């Protein structure tokens, strides 16, 4: 995420206190006073900015010799920066992802996808299927987009299988966060590998194993403890839960009188944009032998998430040609705008709050403090990004900042650079909470309560992060 230049403040323990108080205030506004999260995040961002000492208006900063150092933006300008940069990066992507999800749901494509998964793994393994789906989808696709596209499938699988929604959605998010945080070519791990000079092939290969550990332990958390605590399965019109007792393969099929689209077209509406994004993502890592050099600009264009998802929308139009009309397309577009509006606004205000914390310098202060402790070497990068992500809510920003902090320490750690990079990625999604845009995308994609969101998203990412770090520790004994 590229933001306009703004000086970072010098943080201290007082800044940590302000951060904690502002987080508590946001949670109380939402849960106790029932304030809409968009307003709660906005108020929290402005209040925290003032408390951190960000000036009320833009100020020019000079050093002791009177030389101009830079511009310190005012608190409102900083809030606007964070909001605009966040929405500018993923707002359209969320809208298009929601559009595909709406069409899948309204044409029955989500039912077809759910039927296919239930046939393959059975109802008892429904949440595992969602975790593995998220694990694969999120390698090329940004985490927020992957959730928006796949959430209707997780909801439909829950409604048919009777598996609690918290388990299917939580397992999906576990797989998505695993590869999004750990495996290149997603921006965070790619930046960490580049800063630390890690061989990209080695990072991808070992990262797949670390990400699998993340996904498995988070899936177990969501499908056991969370599922027992929140046992409600999704209820969807026209979808009957599976009968009790011994089931045949045909019993797993979601019965409906409506005409359903083909499995090929249902999967294509998801896989076509994913493959386009993936082809372009791996093409940016190095020379792509599958694409002639003169076609690289074209592949870069159609592989951009906005264009690729736009193509996915066009593919989704073919799910049920019999209902395709300008009136129906208009209804789908209107529904997708209604569905995505809150997600986009919540994402933007979370970006504002996260950027306020970033400008405050509190994340870097905590990261530098942990790096100076006597912790075993392999845990130092883990705790650096853990503290960074708790403060700014972005795995990508935490990895970029954390790798910059760790780079000068590499000669003194006695660790392979790839282990340092993987330890950074393991900590970079620990306990996603209200300052992370992804938290709100997951919560609102299935209308979860705040309590369900904390156990599902925050708890799942915390457990997954610890599982990933355990895998990194084992690897550090051999690599």
Radius of gyration: 22 Å
Largest sheet: 2 strands, antiparallel
Share in β-strands: under 5%
What percentage of residues falls in helices of 4 or more residues? 55-70%
Topology, number of strands: 2
Query: Separation of termini?
Result: 32 Å
Counted by DSSP, the helix tally is: 20
Instruction: Write down the secondary-structure element order.
Output: HHEEHHHHHHHHHHHHHHHHHH
Shape: globular
Structural class of the secondary structure composition?
mainly alpha
Helices, strands, pairings?
Layout: H1 13-31, H2 37-52, E1 59-62, E2 68-72, H3 75-107, H4 109-121, H5 126-137, H6 143-161, H7 165-182, H8 187-196, H9 200-229, H10 263-285, H11 296-302, H12 305-317, H13 326-360, H14 362-371, H15 379-392, H16 395-406, H17 410-413, H18 417-427, H19 437-445, H20 450-476
Antiparallel strand pairs: 1-2
Helix pairs in contact: 1-2, 2-3, 2-13, 3-6, 3-12, 3-13, 4-6, 4-10, 5-6, 5-7, 5-9, 6-7, 6-19, 7-9, 7-20, 8-16, 8-18, 9-18, 9-20, 10-11, 10-12, 13-19, 14-15, 14-16, 15-16, 15-18, 16-18, 18-20, 19-20
Structure description:
The protein is mainly α and 479 residues long. The chain has helices at 13-31, 37-52, 75-107, 109-121, 126-137, 143-161, 165-182, 187-196, 200-229, 263-285, 296-302, 305-317, 326-360, 362-371, 379-392, 395-406, 410-413, 417-427, 437-445, 450-476; strands at residues 59-62, 68-72. It has a two-stranded antiparallel ribbon. It is globular.
Features:
single chain, 2 strands, 70% helix, disordered N terminus
Summarize the structure.
By secondary structure, the chain is mainly α. It has 20 helices and two strands.
């Amino acid at each position: 995420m590229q933001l306009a230049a703004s000086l970072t403040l010098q943080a201290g323990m007082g800044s940590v206190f302000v951060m904690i108080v502002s987080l508590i205030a946001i949670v109380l506004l939402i849960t106790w006073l029932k304030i809409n999260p968009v307003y709660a995040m906005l108020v929290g961002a402005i209040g925290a900015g003032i408390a951190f000492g960000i000036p009320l208006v833009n100020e020019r900063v000079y050093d002791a010799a009177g030389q101009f150092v830079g511009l310190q933006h005012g608190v409102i300008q900083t809030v606007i920066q964070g909001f605009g940069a966040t929405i500018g990066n993923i707002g359209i992507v969320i809208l298009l992802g929601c559009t595909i999800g709406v069409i899948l749901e309204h044409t029955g494509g989500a039912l077809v996808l759910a039927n296919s998964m239930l046939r393959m793994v059975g109802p008892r393994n429904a949440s595992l299927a969602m975790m593995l789906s998220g694990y694969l989808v999120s390698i090329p696709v940004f985490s927020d987009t992957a959730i928006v596209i796949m959430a209707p499938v997780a909801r439909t699988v829950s409604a048919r299988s009777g598996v609690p929604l918290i388990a299917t959605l939580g397992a999906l998010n576990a797989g998505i966060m695993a590869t999004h945080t750990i495996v290149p070519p997603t921006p965070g791990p790619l930046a960490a590998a580049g800063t630390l000079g890690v061989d990209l092939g080695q990072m991808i290969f070992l990262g797949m194993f670390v990400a699998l550990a993340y996904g498995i332990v988070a899936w177990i958390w969501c499908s056991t403890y969370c599922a027992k605590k929140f046992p409600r399965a999704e209820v969807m019109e026209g979808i009957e839960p599976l009968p009790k007792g011994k089931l045949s393969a045909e019993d797993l099929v979601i019965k409906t009188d409506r005409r359903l689209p083909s499995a090929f077209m249902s999967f294509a509406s998801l896989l076509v944009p994913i493959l386009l994004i993936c082809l372009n993502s791996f093409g940016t890592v190095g020379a792509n032998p599958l694409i002639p050099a003169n076609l690289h600009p074209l592949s870069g264009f159609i592989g951009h998430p906005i264009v690729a998802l736009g193509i996915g929308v066009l593919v989704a139009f073919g799910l049920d040609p019999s209902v395709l009309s300008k009136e129906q397309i208009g209804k789908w577009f209107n529904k997708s705008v209604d569905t995505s509006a809150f997600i986009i606004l919540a994402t933007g205000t979370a970006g504002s709050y996260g950027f306020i914390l970033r400008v405050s310098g509190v994340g870097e202060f905590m990261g530098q403090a942990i790096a100076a402790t006597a912790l075993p070497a392999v845990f130092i990068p883990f705790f650096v990004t853990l503290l960074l992500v708790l403060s700014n809510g972005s795995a990508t920003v935490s990895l970029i900042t954390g790798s910059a902090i760790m780079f000068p320490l590499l000669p003194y750690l006695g660790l392979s650079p790839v282990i340092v990079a993987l330890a950074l990625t393991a900590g970079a999604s620990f306990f996603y909470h209200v300052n992370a845009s992804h938290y709100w995308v997951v919560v609102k994609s299935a209308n979860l309560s705040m309590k369900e969101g904390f156990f599902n998203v925050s708890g799942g990412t915390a457990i997954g992060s610890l599982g990933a770090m355990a895998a990194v520790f084992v690897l550090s004994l051999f690599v």
